[in-house]
């Protein structure tokens, strides 16, 4: 029980998770977040190094199944720097995975599958080992955290005088350079650094996202947002997908950078823009958010779409360019946290004085196949495609074949109720009808419904 007191009174409660793109750890991350840990996950090793430099996470969870060919050497460098704060985990129950565990020699391991309780157990194991065999009571302190198994208002802090407390996770400039060389990934771009107050130790911290020369600057400028934050990527890693690289290059060519030190950060968003992407290999929604829930400028999103599609076509993709970008309104959500958990990738930059982010949400069928209706101006759609109890973005009609008349059943902006849907299905009705001119609105409606479902999944995982 004493090690639980130690863990829940920890001041630095931040965790970095380095994983491969193919694994989904959202449930495990949500479990840890609910226990008041600040969790950041990433797949790019350069981004991970920058995060360690700037944010000094308390623990680093890293996958031995990461696709980087030098992942084991990278883990060993981490262990040399912070031997007690690195935890390795496996994503695949494969013999090679267990061989990698032995090869790293890490003290703390999580065998697949990775779960929230498993992560918590290994953290508790660390704090238990820190206490040692015979901890000594030294002082009482008030408990400021909530823990369902602890009912008292104060607790004793224990320590073992023979156990030396582990050093904070501080990455020196020399060690960071060594890690960058080992991982051998495409650079994240020109990210500005500032030497800390102890330059003799070579410690660095990441600061502003502005574009510089890509070199370490010997100064101590503060972050323009007034707090530490993750670096804004200026280029996509070489191993990432073609659409990820297309989005990153287009974003950096479209944004207008300024020298302003005041940047409006993306927080809670509901007003977004959506680009429908359908090509030879990719299908899904590319969603953009700007500043503090600001509407994305139409000229900006059109230019972004044009550059993304040009990049894809230049690399052999056949792109469907039929639809203009959509302005969508979804449930309020922390855009960056949602995208990091549910999107295939997230890319960020600064446009004028506002942070701009784009995230890609894959979906197999983003354009619905409409069948011809009796009237050439109308199109019919299966009733299963209409989500009940959600406002529609178009007028919805039923067709009376007996007299070939169309009756407006649900007005634009109103809800197609579940009871109405059930009643029509009971009467043998399988199709609803819309004007062909409203097909873009129907695709927008489907996009909003799909994205809202992912938001609900994200919120449920966080609250679990």
From TrEMBL:
Residues 216-236 are annotated as: Disordered. SUPFAM superfamilies: CheY-like. This is Uncharacterized protein.
